[in-house]
Amino acid sequence: MSRMSVSAAPRKTTHGTITPAANFDKEEDAKRLKKAMQGFGCDEKTVISIAAHRTNYQRQEIRKTFKTMYGKDLMQELRSELSGHLKDAILSAMMSTYEYDADQLYHAMKVRCVHTHGHTLTDTHGHGHRHTYTHTHTPG
């Protein structure tokens, strides 16, 4: 039987789907966000346009610039202006990668676990529903 040679094709490495915005101007983006949140309601299209078309690094620069220009925390402003799933998505997008990881861990750990004598009681839904899992130990 003949041996087949398998050549490994070079893999294309990607770093997400968002590429840096051309002609990125953090001051202009901060001004646009401030204007979008002024008055009654919020111009959600502008907020989405900026958050969805900037890399995480650029979004962090916008946050710092917003704080410098207006003395306000952009995350707090967004939190008060947005609601529902859009609020969750925009706030998640505006977090640094470390903040996002910490936030996800925090929410994952909201599931209460109590370890007791061979049982783990877990509130998996956060609504008081308890499920019991029994650990079985096979004698060696």
Summed up, what is this model?
This protein has 140 residues and is mainly α. The chain starts with 25 loop residues before the first helix and ends in a 6-residue tail after the last strand. It has 6 helices and 3 strands; from the N terminus they run ααααααβββ.
What does this structure look like?
With 140 residues, the chain is mostly helical. A three-stranded antiparallel beta sheet has the order 1-2-3, with no helix packed on it. The C terminus is likely disordered.
The structure class reads: mainly alpha
Q: Give the averaged pLDDT, no decimals.
A: 79
| Principal-axes shape call | globular
Which series of helices and strands comes N to C?
Answer: HHHHHHEEE
Number of helices: 6
Approximate strand percentage: 5-15%
Q: Nearest-angstrom radius of gyration?
A: 23 Å
Write down how many β-strands occur, each being a DSSP E stretch of 2 or more residues: 3
Key features of this structure:
140 residues; mainly alpha; 3-stranded antiparallel sheet; 6 helices; 3 strands; globular
Secondary structure elements and pairings:
Blueprint: H1 26-36, H2 44-52, H3 56-70, H4 74-81, H5 84-94, H6 97-108, E1 112-116, E2 119-123, E3 130-134
Antiparallel strand pairs: 1-2, 2-3
